[in-house]
Amino acid sequence: MPTTSLINRLWTAIIFAGLLCAQTPTLADDWHQWRGVDRRGVWHESGILDRFPDEGLAVRWRVPIHSGYAGPAVADGRVFVLDWVSDVQTRTMDGTERLLALDETTGAILWTHEWHTSYRMLQPINATGPRATPTVDGDRVYVLGATGMLVCLDVATGNRLWHKDYVAEYDTYIPPWGLSSAPLVDGDRLIALVGGEPDALVVAFDKRTGAEIWRSLAVESDVGHGQPVIYEAGGTRQLIVWHPSALSSLDPETGDLFWEQEWETQDGVTVGTPVRSGNYLLVSQLYYGSLMMRLSTDQPSARLLWKGSSQSYEPDQTDGLHSMITTPLIIGDHVYGVGSHGELRGLDARTGERQWMSTAMTTQAPWSTAFMVQHNDRFFVNNDDGDLIIAQFTPKGYVEIDRTKLIDVTSEAGYGTDRIVNWVHPAYANRHIVQRNDTEIIRASLAESDY
Fold it and tell me: How many Å separate Cα 327 from the centre of its chain?
């Protein structure tokens, strides 16, 4: 029989271990693709600061890079980022797209991989670099250049394992803003918006070899700028693809169509990612506003709940939310998003009726943008003025908790405005934020213990 003192010591050890586990932060998260885990725009780490220090965030490293809109990905101690280097410093339309792999802790360049291309088919204001965030899957990283070069690389060495040239192999039309859709890994498949012919708007490749597995959907104009995402609804995993003609749901294993809602866009501006909460599925575009679907609970189908009726993106003529770049949020029965000129709006998710509007979060200017990532009951927001904001969105309005300057703005917004902006979605990983502009990439701490 154990003695009383031994029992007491055992209980003490058990209690101490329990307290230690309760006080130890959860395992840190990587950010291995567009909008993080499952492309949901949700960050789960604990030990994150509640407010920013008066002196700003502690920047662990800064590394010079060249131009681009593609956000960083962080996985297994490495940071991956794409950029563009023109052939001469006079900014010709010919040059090199490049993937850099950096050491996450030090910023040291581990390797680079580059390929030559031409941006002559792009509008000059948009010929400033790649758009698609790298997708990391185990020992491989998949990247897409603005002119349709899909490349699979070894994460440790940067060696090219396979590649696809969308133009040469699929007769893809490159839209004026370039290709922006980051490929999505699903099991053994790499699913990509290719915009190819015939009937290859979406293509699933074998992620190990690059062999085509299936293709789906006809191209009626161009591929657009959407990001594919997989949601489970109606007892079925559904691949949701928003393209310039419709919002489509496909079987990710076969490419077969489950359901489709026709919805035309102008200029292929299918930018914000389709966002789902409960049975709501929402997309929002610049010209015609927002489209809300009600997902079925017992089969892979959906019905139209409501859609915008305005055909203008002028703030005083819009009836709901006309988002250009920002992916909206659905919280309960409410929608929050940034409209065509930077106006933050709250909508009733059931009807699309506007409930409130705020001008506090972003600059009021055409195409003004913010990237919103959920962390517990609050959101970290990167606006296009280079600010990092902690905020909450409520049915009664916008609540700003704190903000700090994160990075310089370097990109021209263009199209009748002289604004300089930062249109890059950052990565939140391992209690840090990783962000880039056209001249540098930085890693700054958001760990409460660092301040």
Answer: 8
Residue 445 domain flag: yes
pLDDT-derived band at 90, boundaries 50, 70, 90: low
pLDDT digits (tens, 9 = 90+) for 224-259: 999 999 999 999 999 999 999 999 999 999 999 999
Contact 447, 430 (CB under 8 A): no
C-alpha distance from residue 338 to each of 168, 289, 290, 320, 343 (Å): 37, 11, 12, 11, 6
| Reduced DSSP (H G I as helix, E B as strand, rest coil) percent helix, strand, coil of the chain, to 5 | 10, 45, 50
Whether 413 is in a domain gets the answer: no
Residue 447 near residue 419 (C-beta atoms within 8 A): no
pTM (2 decimals)?
0.93
**In angstroms, rounded to a whole number, what is the distance separating the alpha carbons of residues 230 and 143?**
19
User: Model confidence over 94-120: pLDDT tens digits?
Assistant: 999 999 999 999 999 999 999 999 999
Reported as a single tens digit per residue, the pLDDT across 155-185 is 999 999 999 999 999 999 999 999 999 999 9
The total number of structural domains in the chain stands at: 1
- For tokens 């996985």, name the residue: 75
The answer to whether residue 105 sits within a structural domain is yes
Q: How far is CA 451 from CA 49, 52, 427, 442, 446, in A?
A: 8, 9, 21, 18, 9
The answer as to whether 137 is a domain residue is yes
- Of 282, 248, 283, 288, the residue nearest 265 (C-alpha): 288
- Per-residue 3-state assignment (H helix, E strand, C coil) for 291-355: EEEEECCCCCCEEEEEECCCCCCCHHHCCCCCCCCCCCEEECCEEEEECCCCCEEEEECCCCCEE
